[in-house]
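To close the chapter, one final illustration. This time we ask the reader to focus less on the individual chains and more on the assembly as a whole: which components sit near each other, and how the overall shape emerges from the parts.
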Amino acid sequence: MKSIVSAVLFFLFFSFSCSKDIPAPNPVGPLPSPQQLAWHEMEYYAFVHFNMNTFTDMEWGLGGESPSTFNPTELDTRQWARVAKEAGMKGIILTAKHHDGFCLWPSAYTEHSVKNSPWQNGQGDVIKELAAACKEYGLKMGLYLSPWDRNHPDYGKPEYIQYYRDQLTELLTNYEEVFEFWVDGANGGDGYYGGANETRNVDRSTYYDWENTFALAKELQPNVVIFSDGGPDVRWVGNENGFADATNWAPLRKAEFAPGIGPYQELPSGHEDGTHWVPAECDVSIRPGWYYHADQDEKVKSLTNLLDIYYKSVGSNGNLLLNLPVDRRGLVHENDVKALMELRRTLDATFAQNLVESATITATNTRGKNFSAQHAIDENTETYWAPKDGMIENSLIIDFPNEISFNRLLLQEFILLGQRVKRFKVEVKTNEGYKEIANETTIGYKRILRLPNTNTKQIKITILDAKAIPLISNIGVYMAKTEPE
Ligand code: FUL
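The assembled structure is written out below.
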């Protein structure tokens, strides 16, 4: 958050100090909020599905499960936090309540919670423990509160909305800062519903009155971002594979969305002419299921698979929400830990050295001294290169003192002033002249291209089209040596 605040201050100072002769470029809306900017910087964090289903071996509990079934033997949220921290994740989002309605905290509004479980003789509170562990490890905590509740007798009736809001109030009041409130799209259908055992369907666009629930969340936690299929702050990427499209706009035409309803085909790539800033979060589980199933112990995703997910989420202008199905002990399983650390080591090796450190950079056009091309390689994302107004097509030319070998190119736009780039190409200088090695579309907060191993002394990045003059805040050139083919 600090860096966001300083970015904003810097930007204001910068605009002011340059205002006489070289004004900062005009923003091109929609723009991210400070909360969304802080969210973008998180990039990679954990989802934890751990609740009643962990003990019933199910994915969607029916709602009639007995609280006595919830009985982890070694629950240790500090282990979750340590693993997440060592994996390079910035936070943990936990299923406080899933569709079966069981609550991981002793809610005052239901008996269907940890308070009637054998775990810690009914005195425990998983959310409280997680909040403390996240604080200790410098992580942010987010919470998933399922709108669909297959346990509650009032689900489907107006009374349930008050229940949902009361629970949300508990979660957003009693545990200090919550960075993300996660609203799932699955809702309505068969359930226990207090013993009625029937089917209850709701009108997804009107039943929940989301507008007022979201307003309540923001009132209780001004820094929270709200996730659901179409936002308001963060959107689902439209699949559970962890993949954003290569073309990925943060803006979205949002009007037709409500959780569980909307033109889903628009989610993986957003909209060039979107009306709201609603960036994509890519959720995917490290195993086939969201919840722990012992028979999936050998089905943890491979390094190749996890790298693919990383590049198609973080590398494609999205955030990666990687799910860890905590097991019946209450721990992240050893096999999952192994896979996470393998991924971390590999990414650390790939991004250890930015080859631009020894390079010089020039641009075909520059707005002025405070917007020089050097700002694109100064490792400071608060400064950026900008051309003069109207000069959309431009090249940035990076010269290396000696020939380099590289296969990863990282680009970032200065999104505080909007997402702009529509099309760009990458060329390298060879003895026969320039050779094109990539022709791509959007950049956004971050884009990472996986390229073939290439040797050169010069890289030329050309912005071919943009919504307005391009603003590039960061370029990284890397050589991945240890990634599997
Ligand atoms: C889905 C849910 O129905 C799954 O159980 C899981 O929580 C996933 C993240 O979202 O819509």
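The mean pLDDT is 95. The radius of gyration is 24 Å. With these observations in hand, you are ready for the problems at the end of the chapter.
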